[in-house]
Design brief:
By secondary structure, the chain is an alpha/beta fold. It is built from twelve helices and 17 strands. Helix content is 37%, strand content 16%. The strands form five sheets. The protein has a seven-stranded mixed sheet, sandwiched between helices. A three-stranded antiparallel sheet has the order 8-7-14, with no helix packed on it. Bound molecules: ligand T4K.
């Protein structure tokens, strides 16, 4: 294996899509000549409008400085200031952190073993007098059970927020995923297929919530007067310009990633103990954000951690997203909903997941190398 390490270039989890430098220069010239750098500038307006019309099914859209601030703004704009929010432990810490920063308490609900999303059938048992909302995550771009969640929310008069950080362009039966819930929050971080270096967007069901979000992201200032306790959550003009260029770059990246999925699938589909991402037939357009497999120790012959260590020896750097579970982090582990015996599926699955290198610049021969390594590890054990 040390020979392989010497000859193979490092393969990391992702590399940001870099917009065309010449075109970025033109964008910068526009910005420089306008002298307008942030605070709802021309580029911000252009990107927001373009995303609303072309990606977000014309629903009210507000650009923000990053996905985490977007989650916090969504909660505030929906008037969620106290109580409990039912959420998943299997996510990036930004999801429960946003709940906590807004003075609310996350209540962890176990996940579905196939989709890895919050198990909609278990949500109701967590509802108390204090429950005000459900914050679900479309983990790795696999849609939550949106219809079931909507029914529960209607029955108990709860708000629904979807953390859609991994779900840009995800469509269900021809409709954007933003058509579900009161708000969908996107991350446009550099590691996302569509990005603005740092950034994000909140897409609301109702215009009045977008208006409130716009106010809150600008310190709560209206006509030079503070009318709310806001924050600075604005996207600047350089971020917005990157997004404008990304709108033309993203389809090329999508095509490359679709080919990589085909190759990963072809090479791994018959490897016993490797569980490939769920194919949901209601998905009419994938987000293509991550490629995540699971290593089932009992059938594969060794654990995910062994596979991870051996891939690293071979200069391959996958990620154990999202390990540790949020519910096992020090900050959350003492919550009663965080007890391991209450989250058996999440605690099992988190030991199996492995996000493999996945970005347009990866070559087919790199995917072959990664898959061959995985197969050889199985043989070794
Ligand atoms: N909700 C969910 C479900 C999320 O997954 C996230 C973020 C959020 C909310 C919050 O959204 P933001 O506030 O971030 O907009 C990365 C991202 O920083 C984070 O945005 C993302 N989720 C999370 C899943 O992944 P790390 O700590 O894994 O990133 P890092 O720095 O290790 O980078 C990953 C790889 O990318 C590295 O191998 C190197 C490469 N890389 C990275 C950057 C930033 C580059 O080659 N160039 C770069 O500029 O968190």
């Amino acid at each position: 294996m040390s020979n392989i390490k010497n000859i193979h270039k490092p393969l990391i989890i992702t590399k940001p899509v870099l917009v065309n430098l010449g075109e970025m220069h033109e964008q910068l010239e526009d910005i420089w000549s306008s002298g307008w750098l942030t605070n709802n500038g021309f580029k911000h307006q252009e990107l927001e409008e373009s995303l609303r019309r072309n990606i977000f099914d014309n629903l009210p859209t507000s650009l923000v400085s990053n996905g985490t601030i977007g989650l916090m703004l969504a909660l505030k704009a929906l008037d969620l200031t106290k109580g409990e929010i039912i959420t998943t432990p299997f996510t990036f810490p930004a999801s429960p952190h946003a709940i906590s920063w807004c003075g609310l308490t996350p209540v962890f609900c176990d996940i579905d073993s196939r989709s890895l999303n919050i198990d909609a059938d278990q949500i109701e048992k967590h509802i108390t007098k204090r429950t005000v909302a459900i914050l679900a995550v479309h983990v790795f771009g696999i849609p939550c059970e949106v219809e079931k969640i909507e029914k529960i929310a209607t029955r108990y008069n709860l708000k629904v927020i979807y953390d859609s950080a991994h779900a840009f362009e995800l469509e269900l039966n021809g409709k954007s995923i933003v058509n579900y819930g009161d708000a969908s929050v996107f991350s446009f971080h550099a590691t996302k297929l569509f990005h603005t270096i740092e950034g994000g967007a909140v897409v609301f069901k109702l215009q009045k919530n977008k208006n409130r979000c716009d106010l809150l992201k600008n310190f709560g200032i209206k006509n030079e007067e503070v009318v709310e306790c806001g924050i600075n959550g604005k996207m600047n003009e350089l971020q917005a310009a990157t997004g404008i260029l990304m709108l033309t770059e993203k389809d090329k990246e999508r095509e490359l990633r679709a080919t990589l999925i085909e190759e990963y699938t072809r090479k791994l589909q018959n490897v016993k103990g490797v569980i490939l991402p769920e194919d949901d037939h209601n998905i009419s357009k994938k987000s293509l954000q991550y490629f995540v497999i699971r290593i089932e120790e009992s059938t594969f012959g060794c654990s995910r951690d062994v596979v991870y260590d051996k891939l690293v020896e071979g200069n391959i750097f996958p990620r154990k997203y999202f390990s540790p579970l949020c519910s096992n982090e020090n900050y959350y582990k003492d919550l009663s909903s965080a007890k391991k015996n209450r989250l058996p599926i999440a605690n099992r699955v988190v030991k199996e997941v492995l996000a493999l290198p996945f970005y347009g610049g990866l070559e087919i021969k790199d995917v072959e190398y990664i898959c061959d390594m995985i197969v050889s590890i199985k043989k070794l054990d």
